[in-house]
Protein backbone atom coordinates (compact mmCIF):
# COMPACT_ATOMS: atom_id res chain seq x y z
CA UNK A 1 0.00 0.00 0.00
CA UNK A 2 1.29 3.46 -0.87
CA UNK A 3 0.22 6.68 0.80
CA UNK A 4 0.63 10.35 0.03
CA UNK A 5 2.12 12.58 2.73
CA UNK A 6 1.71 16.38 2.85
CA UNK A 7 4.57 18.75 2.13
CA UNK A 8 7.65 18.30 4.33
CA UNK A 9 10.66 20.55 4.60
CA UNK A 10 13.19 17.78 5.10
CA UNK A 11 13.61 14.06 4.53
CA UNK A 12 12.20 12.06 7.40
CA UNK A 13 11.91 8.37 8.21
CA UNK A 14 9.13 7.46 10.65
CA UNK A 15 8.46 4.07 12.20
CA UNK A 16 4.90 3.42 13.33
CA UNK A 17 3.92 0.58 15.59
CA UNK A 18 0.95 -0.46 13.50
CA UNK A 19 -1.38 -0.72 16.50
CA UNK A 20 -4.99 -0.14 15.53
CA UNK A 21 -5.43 2.47 18.28
CA UNK A 22 -3.25 4.99 16.43
CA UNK A 23 -5.18 7.76 14.67
CA UNK A 24 -3.27 8.66 11.52
CA UNK A 25 -3.62 12.21 10.15
CA UNK A 26 -6.62 12.63 7.90
CA UNK A 27 -4.38 13.98 5.11
CA UNK A 28 -2.88 10.50 4.58
CA UNK A 29 -4.77 8.85 1.72
CA UNK A 30 -4.35 5.82 -0.50
CA UNK A 31 -3.10 6.52 -4.03
CA UNK A 32 -2.46 2.94 -5.12
CA UNK A 33 1.02 2.13 -6.42
CA UNK A 34 1.55 5.27 -8.46
CA UNK A 35 4.22 7.86 -7.75
CA UNK A 36 3.04 11.35 -6.89
CA UNK A 37 5.03 14.58 -7.02
CA UNK A 38 3.65 15.61 -3.64
CA UNK A 39 5.42 12.75 -1.92
CA UNK A 40 6.19 9.03 -2.11
CA UNK A 41 5.86 6.41 0.56
CA UNK A 42 5.81 2.67 0.94
CA UNK A 43 4.30 0.92 3.96
CA UNK A 44 4.12 -2.67 5.05
CA UNK A 45 1.02 -3.66 7.00
CA UNK A 46 -0.81 -6.78 8.15
CA UNK A 47 0.12 -6.23 11.82
CA UNK A 48 3.85 -5.72 11.18
CA UNK A 49 5.64 -2.43 11.98
CA UNK A 50 5.03 0.09 9.21
CA UNK A 51 7.85 2.07 7.65
CA UNK A 52 6.94 5.22 5.74
CA UNK A 53 9.39 7.39 3.85
CA UNK A 54 8.47 11.02 3.26
CA UNK A 55 10.22 12.82 0.43
CA UNK A 56 10.69 16.60 0.41
CA UNK A 57 8.87 18.53 -2.27
CA UNK A 58 10.58 20.45 -5.00
CA UNK A 59 11.21 24.08 -4.15
CA UNK A 60 9.16 25.19 -7.14
CA UNK A 61 5.96 23.85 -5.63
CA UNK A 62 3.98 26.32 -3.50
CA UNK A 63 3.39 25.39 0.09
CA UNK A 64 0.01 25.94 1.69
CA UNK A 65 -0.05 28.33 4.66
CA UNK A 66 -0.28 26.50 7.96
CA UNK A 67 -3.45 27.20 9.93
CA UNK A 68 -3.01 28.60 13.42
CA UNK A 69 -4.82 26.25 15.76
CA UNK A 70 -5.68 26.74 19.41
CA UNK A 71 -3.74 24.42 21.66
CA UNK A 72 -6.05 21.89 23.26
CA UNK A 73 -5.18 20.64 26.71
CA UNK A 74 -4.84 16.92 27.15
CA UNK A 75 -6.79 15.08 29.81
CA UNK A 76 -3.67 15.14 31.98
CA UNK A 77 -3.54 18.96 31.97
CA UNK A 78 -7.09 19.51 33.25
CA UNK A 79 -7.22 22.03 36.10
CA UNK A 80 -10.01 21.92 38.64
CA UNK A 81 -11.36 24.70 40.83
CA UNK A 82 -9.47 23.65 43.95
CA UNK A 83 -6.07 23.53 42.25
CA UNK A 84 -6.78 26.88 40.57
CA UNK A 85 -7.65 28.48 43.92
CA UNK A 86 -4.49 27.07 45.50
CA UNK A 87 -2.42 28.61 42.68
CA UNK A 88 -4.06 31.98 43.35
CA UNK A 89 -3.20 31.55 47.01
CA UNK A 90 0.45 30.85 46.19
CA UNK A 91 0.55 33.97 44.00
CA UNK A 92 -0.81 36.06 46.86
CA UNK A 93 -4.11 36.91 45.15
CA UNK A 94 -6.19 35.38 47.95
CA UNK A 95 -5.52 33.91 51.38
CA UNK A 96 -6.18 30.42 52.72
CA UNK A 97 -9.37 31.49 54.49
CA UNK A 98 -10.93 32.89 51.32
CA UNK A 99 -9.96 29.69 49.50
CA UNK A 100 -11.86 27.73 52.14
CA UNK A 101 -14.96 29.92 51.79
CA UNK A 102 -14.98 29.59 47.99
CA UNK A 103 -14.56 25.81 48.19
CA UNK A 104 -17.52 25.64 50.58
CA UNK A 105 -19.66 27.66 48.17
CA UNK A 106 -18.72 25.36 45.29
CA UNK A 107 -19.72 22.36 47.42
CA UNK A 108 -23.13 23.91 48.08
CA UNK A 109 -23.54 24.49 44.34
CA UNK A 110 -22.76 20.84 43.57
CA UNK A 111 -25.42 19.71 46.03
CA UNK A 112 -27.99 22.13 44.61
CA UNK A 113 -27.20 20.97 41.06
CA UNK A 114 -27.81 17.37 42.10
CA UNK A 115 -31.14 18.24 43.73
CA UNK A 116 -32.28 20.21 40.69
CA UNK A 117 -31.54 17.31 38.37
CA UNK A 118 -33.66 15.00 40.52
CA UNK A 119 -36.27 17.51 41.70
CA UNK A 120 -39.19 15.97 39.80
CA UNK A 121 -38.23 12.48 40.93
CA UNK A 122 -37.85 13.25 44.65
CA UNK A 123 -40.83 15.63 44.86
CA UNK A 124 -38.93 18.91 45.26
CA UNK A 125 -40.99 20.87 42.76
CA UNK A 126 -43.80 23.21 43.71
CA UNK A 127 -44.30 25.75 46.47
CA UNK A 128 -43.13 25.41 50.06
CA UNK A 129 -46.20 27.22 51.38
CA UNK A 130 -44.16 30.01 52.99
CA UNK A 131 -43.30 33.59 52.06
CA UNK A 132 -39.87 35.25 52.31
CA UNK A 133 -39.09 38.74 53.61
CA UNK A 134 -39.79 40.23 50.16
CA UNK A 135 -43.30 38.79 50.17
CA UNK A 136 -42.44 36.21 47.52
CA UNK A 137 -43.80 32.67 47.64
CA UNK A 138 -40.95 30.28 48.38
CA UNK A 139 -40.34 27.15 46.37
CA UNK A 140 -39.28 23.99 48.17
CA UNK A 141 -35.81 24.28 46.69
CA UNK A 142 -35.57 27.95 47.76
CA UNK A 143 -35.67 26.82 51.38
CA UNK A 144 -33.47 23.74 50.94
CA UNK A 145 -30.84 25.58 48.87
CA UNK A 146 -30.65 28.34 51.45
CA UNK A 147 -29.99 25.75 54.17
CA UNK A 148 -27.31 24.09 52.05
CA UNK A 149 -25.50 27.39 51.54
CA UNK A 150 -25.76 28.32 55.21
CA UNK A 151 -24.57 24.92 56.44
CA UNK A 152 -21.59 24.80 54.09
CA UNK A 153 -20.55 28.32 55.11
CA UNK A 154 -21.03 27.65 58.83
CA UNK A 155 -18.94 24.49 58.84
CA UNK A 156 -15.93 25.83 56.93
CA UNK A 157 -14.85 27.85 59.97
CA UNK A 158 -14.02 31.00 58.00
CA UNK A 159 -17.38 32.77 57.63
CA UNK A 160 -18.51 35.43 60.09
CA UNK A 161 -21.77 36.79 58.66
CA UNK A 162 -24.23 35.37 56.14
CA UNK A 163 -26.82 37.51 54.33
CA UNK A 164 -29.30 35.74 52.07
CA UNK A 165 -32.34 36.59 50.00
CA UNK A 166 -34.28 34.06 52.07
CA UNK A 167 -33.26 35.44 55.49
CA UNK A 168 -34.95 38.42 57.15
CA UNK A 169 -31.70 39.80 58.59
CA UNK A 170 -27.99 38.87 58.39
CA UNK A 171 -27.08 35.74 60.32
CA UNK A 172 -23.89 35.65 62.36
CA UNK A 173 -22.13 32.32 62.55
CA UNK A 174 -21.56 31.05 66.10
CA UNK A 175 -18.53 32.78 67.57
CA UNK A 176 -16.75 29.60 68.64
CA UNK A 177 -16.54 28.33 65.07
CA UNK A 178 -16.63 31.39 62.87
CA UNK A 179 -14.15 33.40 60.89
CA UNK A 180 -14.75 36.90 59.70
CA UNK A 181 -15.71 36.91 56.01
CA UNK A 182 -19.10 38.35 55.05
CA UNK A 183 -20.89 36.25 52.42
CA UNK A 184 -24.02 37.47 50.63
CA UNK A 185 -25.93 35.19 48.29
CA UNK A 186 -29.10 34.31 46.43
CA UNK A 187 -29.27 30.50 46.73
CA UNK A 188 -31.65 30.00 43.78
CA UNK A 189 -32.02 32.70 41.16
CA UNK A 190 -34.92 32.09 38.79
CA UNK A 191 -36.66 29.59 41.08
CA UNK A 192 -39.88 30.07 39.07
CA UNK A 193 -38.11 28.03 36.36
CA UNK A 194 -37.63 24.95 38.55
CA UNK A 195 -40.97 23.28 37.84
CA UNK A 196 -40.44 23.58 34.08
CA UNK A 197 -36.77 22.45 34.19
CA UNK A 198 -35.47 25.71 32.77
CA UNK A 199 -32.28 27.60 33.64
CA UNK A 200 -31.63 28.58 37.27
CA UNK A 201 -28.55 29.72 39.16
CA UNK A 202 -26.91 30.79 42.41
CA UNK A 203 -25.22 34.16 43.02
CA UNK A 204 -22.70 35.07 45.72
CA UNK A 205 -20.41 37.87 46.84
CA UNK A 206 -17.72 37.96 49.52
CA UNK A 207 -16.72 41.02 51.53
CA UNK A 208 -13.82 41.60 53.87
CA UNK A 209 -13.75 40.48 57.50
CA UNK A 210 -15.14 42.51 60.39
CA UNK A 211 -14.03 41.20 63.77
CA UNK A 212 -16.61 43.31 65.61
CA UNK A 213 -19.59 41.56 64.07
CA UNK A 214 -19.56 38.07 65.57
CA UNK A 215 -22.99 38.26 67.19
CA UNK A 216 -26.25 36.33 66.99
CA UNK A 217 -28.97 37.65 64.69
CA UNK A 218 -31.86 35.45 65.76
CA UNK A 219 -33.85 38.42 67.09
CA UNK A 220 -36.40 40.51 65.23
CA UNK A 221 -34.63 43.29 63.32
CA UNK A 222 -36.80 45.89 65.09
CA UNK A 223 -35.24 44.82 68.40
CA UNK A 224 -31.61 44.91 67.33
CA UNK A 225 -29.29 46.64 69.74
CA UNK A 226 -26.57 49.07 68.74
CA UNK A 227 -23.94 46.38 68.18
CA UNK A 228 -26.20 44.44 65.85
CA UNK A 229 -27.13 47.57 63.95
CA UNK A 230 -23.42 48.20 63.45
CA UNK A 231 -23.01 44.75 61.97
CA UNK A 232 -25.85 45.29 59.53
CA UNK A 233 -24.09 48.46 58.41
CA UNK A 234 -20.91 46.42 57.87
CA UNK A 235 -22.82 44.07 55.56
CA UNK A 236 -24.28 46.97 53.56
CA UNK A 237 -21.14 47.76 51.58
CA UNK A 238 -20.86 49.01 48.00
CA UNK A 239 -19.99 46.39 45.42
CA UNK A 240 -16.63 48.07 44.85
CA UNK A 241 -15.56 46.54 48.21
CA UNK A 242 -16.11 42.97 47.03
CA UNK A 243 -13.15 40.63 47.39
CA UNK A 244 -14.70 37.94 45.21
CA UNK A 245 -17.98 37.27 43.46
CA UNK A 246 -19.47 34.66 41.21
CA UNK A 247 -22.41 32.58 40.16
CA UNK A 248 -23.26 28.98 39.36
CA UNK A 249 -25.38 28.24 36.31
CA UNK A 250 -27.64 25.16 36.41
CA UNK A 251 -28.58 24.28 32.84
CA UNK A 252 -27.44 21.76 30.20
CA UNK A 253 -24.10 22.15 31.98
CA UNK A 254 -23.34 23.28 35.52
CA UNK A 255 -20.93 26.21 35.25
CA UNK A 256 -19.24 27.89 38.23
CA UNK A 257 -18.01 31.36 37.24
CA UNK A 258 -15.81 33.40 39.56
CA UNK A 259 -13.71 36.54 39.83
CA UNK A 260 -11.28 37.38 42.61
CA UNK A 261 -10.48 40.78 41.14
CA UNK A 262 -8.17 39.60 38.38
CA UNK A 263 -10.37 38.55 35.47
CA UNK A 264 -13.26 36.11 35.12
CA UNK A 265 -12.89 32.33 35.01
CA UNK A 266 -15.52 29.64 34.45
CA UNK A 267 -15.40 26.02 35.58
CA UNK A 268 -17.73 23.34 34.21
CA UNK A 269 -18.83 20.46 36.43
CA UNK A 270 -17.58 17.13 35.11
CA UNK A 271 -20.22 14.65 36.30
CA UNK A 272 -17.90 11.69 35.80
CA UNK A 273 -15.88 12.61 38.88
CA UNK A 274 -17.73 15.54 40.43
CA UNK A 275 -15.17 18.30 39.93
CA UNK A 276 -15.43 21.80 38.49
CA UNK A 277 -12.96 21.88 35.58
CA UNK A 278 -11.51 25.10 34.14
CA UNK A 279 -13.09 25.64 30.71
CA UNK A 280 -13.09 29.43 30.17
CA UNK A 281 -9.99 31.44 31.07
CA UNK A 282 -9.96 35.21 31.48
CA UNK A 283 -13.36 35.78 29.84
CA UNK A 284 -13.75 39.06 27.95
CA UNK A 285 -17.23 40.28 27.07
CA UNK A 286 -17.63 41.42 23.43
CA UNK A 287 -17.63 45.23 23.10
CA UNK A 288 -21.05 45.06 21.49
CA UNK A 289 -23.73 42.50 20.86
CA UNK A 290 -27.08 42.36 19.10
CA UNK A 291 -29.00 40.57 21.85
CA UNK A 292 -31.22 42.27 24.41
CA UNK A 293 -32.77 40.73 27.53
CA UNK A 294 -35.70 42.75 28.86
CA UNK A 295 -39.15 41.72 30.03
CA UNK A 296 -41.06 43.37 27.20
CA UNK A 297 -44.36 42.73 28.95
CA UNK A 298 -43.66 45.85 31.03
CA UNK A 299 -43.02 48.11 28.02
CA UNK A 300 -46.07 50.31 28.64
CA UNK A 301 -44.97 50.83 32.27
CA UNK A 302 -41.51 52.19 31.36
CA UNK A 303 -40.69 55.88 31.07
CA UNK A 304 -40.61 57.51 27.65
CA UNK A 305 -36.80 57.65 27.38
CA UNK A 306 -36.47 53.91 27.84
CA UNK A 307 -39.31 53.27 25.40
CA UNK A 308 -37.49 55.37 22.79
CA UNK A 309 -34.32 53.33 23.32
CA UNK A 310 -36.26 50.12 22.98
CA UNK A 311 -37.93 51.27 19.77
CA UNK A 312 -34.44 52.02 18.43
CA UNK A 313 -32.98 48.56 19.06
CA UNK A 314 -36.05 46.84 17.62
CA UNK A 315 -35.60 48.59 14.27
CA UNK A 316 -33.39 47.03 11.55
CA UNK A 317 -29.82 48.30 11.78
CA UNK A 318 -27.20 48.90 9.09
CA UNK A 319 -27.15 45.18 8.32
CA UNK A 320 -30.92 45.14 7.85
CA UNK A 321 -31.55 43.21 11.05
CA UNK A 322 -32.86 44.37 14.44
CA UNK A 323 -31.53 43.18 17.79
CA UNK A 324 -32.64 39.71 18.87
CA UNK A 325 -34.68 39.36 22.05
CA UNK A 326 -33.77 36.64 24.56
CA UNK A 327 -35.38 36.48 27.99
CA UNK A 328 -35.48 33.43 30.27
CA UNK A 329 -36.35 34.98 33.63
CA UNK A 330 -33.05 34.07 35.29
CA UNK A 331 -30.38 36.72 35.87
CA UNK A 332 -27.60 34.12 35.95
CA UNK A 333 -28.61 32.71 32.57
CA UNK A 334 -28.90 36.14 30.98
CA UNK A 335 -25.50 37.30 32.26
CA UNK A 336 -23.74 34.05 31.34
CA UNK A 337 -24.94 34.31 27.73
CA UNK A 338 -23.99 37.97 27.63
CA UNK A 339 -20.45 37.32 28.88
CA UNK A 340 -19.88 34.95 25.98
CA UNK A 341 -21.98 36.56 23.23
CA UNK A 342 -22.33 40.23 24.19
CA UNK A 343 -25.49 42.30 24.41
CA UNK A 344 -27.45 44.10 27.12
CA UNK A 345 -29.68 43.04 30.02
CA UNK A 346 -32.11 45.39 31.72
CA UNK A 347 -34.43 45.27 34.70
CA UNK A 348 -35.63 48.88 34.85
CA UNK A 349 -37.92 50.70 37.20
CA UNK A 350 -41.54 51.02 36.12
CA UNK A 351 -44.80 52.46 37.35
CA UNK A 352 -45.40 49.49 39.65
CA UNK A 353 -41.80 49.03 40.86
CA UNK A 354 -40.05 52.35 41.33
CA UNK A 355 -36.77 50.63 42.27
CA UNK A 356 -36.90 47.67 39.92
CA UNK A 357 -37.18 44.04 40.98
CA UNK A 358 -33.61 42.92 41.69
CA UNK A 359 -31.79 43.19 45.02
CA UNK A 360 -28.65 45.30 45.07
CA UNK A 361 -26.57 43.51 47.71
CA UNK A 362 -26.66 39.88 46.62
CA UNK A 363 -27.83 40.02 43.00
CA UNK A 364 -26.89 43.24 41.20
CA UNK A 365 -23.58 44.00 42.93
CA UNK A 366 -21.97 40.53 42.49
CA UNK A 367 -23.10 40.27 38.86
CA UNK A 368 -21.92 43.81 38.11
CA UNK A 369 -18.55 42.91 39.63
CA UNK A 370 -18.27 39.89 37.32
CA UNK A 371 -19.28 41.85 34.22
CA UNK A 372 -16.90 44.75 34.94
CA UNK A 373 -14.05 42.30 35.50
CA UNK A 374 -14.82 40.95 32.02
CA UNK A 375 -14.71 44.45 30.50
CA UNK A 376 -18.43 45.27 30.58
CA UNK A 377 -20.45 47.97 32.34
CA UNK A 378 -23.34 48.09 34.81
CA UNK A 379 -25.48 51.09 35.74
CA UNK A 380 -28.83 51.91 37.33
CA UNK A 381 -29.40 54.49 34.61
CA UNK A 382 -27.67 57.26 36.55
CA UNK A 383 -24.64 55.82 38.31
CA UNK A 384 -22.37 52.80 38.40
CA UNK A 385 -23.95 49.88 40.29
CA UNK A 386 -20.73 49.12 42.20
CA UNK A 387 -20.69 52.67 43.62
CA UNK A 388 -24.11 52.37 45.26
CA UNK A 389 -24.00 51.75 49.02
CA UNK A 390 -27.17 49.95 50.15
CA UNK A 391 -29.09 51.30 53.12
CA UNK A 392 -30.97 48.04 53.66
CA UNK A 393 -30.10 44.38 53.25
CA UNK A 394 -32.89 43.75 50.75
CA UNK A 395 -32.71 47.08 48.93
CA UNK A 396 -33.72 46.93 45.26
CA UNK A 397 -32.31 48.80 42.30
CA UNK A 398 -32.88 49.18 38.56
CA UNK A 399 -30.03 47.73 36.52
CA UNK A 400 -28.72 47.87 32.95
CA UNK A 401 -25.71 45.65 32.39
CA UNK A 402 -23.75 44.32 29.44
CA UNK A 403 -21.32 45.14 26.64
CA UNK A 404 -19.70 48.59 27.03
CA UNK A 405 -20.86 49.91 23.64
CA UNK A 406 -24.44 48.82 24.29
CA UNK A 407 -24.53 50.50 27.71
CA UNK A 408 -23.15 53.68 26.15
CA UNK A 409 -25.96 53.71 23.57
CA UNK A 410 -28.52 53.22 26.34
CA UNK A 411 -27.07 56.06 28.43
CA UNK A 412 -27.36 58.36 25.42
CA UNK A 413 -31.12 57.81 25.42
CA UNK A 414 -31.46 58.00 29.22
CA UNK A 415 -29.55 61.29 29.59
Automatic annotation (TrEMBL):
Task: Name the Pfam families on file.
Answer: FBPase, FBPase_C
User: So which cofactors does this thing need?
Assistant: Mg(2+)
Query: What class does this enzyme belong to in the EC scheme?
Result: hydrolase
Q: Domain of life here?
A: Eukaryota
The UniProt GO MF terms for this protein read: fructose 1,6-bisphosphate 1-phosphatase activity; metal ion binding
Keyword set for this entry? Calvin cycle, Carbohydrate metabolism, Chloroplast, Disulfide bond, Hydrolase, Magnesium, Metal-binding, Plastid, Transit peptide
Transmembrane stretches, start-end:
none
What's an example GO BP annotation here? fructose 1,6-bisphosphate metabolic process
* UniProt pathway: Carbohydrate biosynthesis; Calvin cycle
Which CDD domains does this entry report, sorted A to Z?
FBPase
Domain annotation Fructose-1-6-bisphosphatase class I N-terminal: ranges: 88-281
Record-linked InterPro entries: FBPase_C_dom (IPR044015), FBPase_class-1 (IPR000146), FBPase_N (IPR033391), FBPtase (IPR028343)
Q: Which residues form the Fructose-1-6-bisphosphatase class 1 C-terminal domain?
A: 285-414
Per its record, the protein catalyses: beta-D-fructose 1,6-bisphosphate + H2O = beta-D-fructose 6-phosphate + phosphate
Q: Does the keyword Protein biosynthesis apply?
A: no
| A cellular component annotation (GO) from this entry | cytosol
Q: Where in the cell is it found?
A: Plastid, Chloroplast
Which EC number(s) does UniProt give? 3.1.3.11
Q: State the oligomer form and interacting partners.
A: Homotetramer.
Q: Which family does it belong to?
A: Belongs to the FBPase class 1 family.
Q: Which PANTHER family match?
A: FRUCTOSE-1,6-BISPHOSPHATASE-RELATED, FRUCTOSE-BISPHOSPHATASE
Protein name per the record: fructose-bisphosphatase
Organism annotation: Lithospermum erythrorhizon (Purple gromwell)
Its organism's taxonomic lineage begins at: Eukaryota, Viridiplantae, Streptophyta, Embryophyta, Tracheophyta
Amino acid sequence: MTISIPALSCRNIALFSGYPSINYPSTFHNIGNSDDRRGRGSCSSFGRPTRCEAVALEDSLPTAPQAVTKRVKSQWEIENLTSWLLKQEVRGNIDAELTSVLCSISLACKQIASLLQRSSIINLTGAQGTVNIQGEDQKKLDVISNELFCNCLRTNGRTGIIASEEEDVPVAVEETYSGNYIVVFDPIDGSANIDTSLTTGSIFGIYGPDENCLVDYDDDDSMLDEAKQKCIVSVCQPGSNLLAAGYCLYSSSVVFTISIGDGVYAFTLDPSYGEFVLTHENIKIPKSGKIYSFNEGNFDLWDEKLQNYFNHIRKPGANGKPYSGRYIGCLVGEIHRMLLCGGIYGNPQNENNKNGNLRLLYECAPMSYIVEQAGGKATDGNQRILDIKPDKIHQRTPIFIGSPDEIQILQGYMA
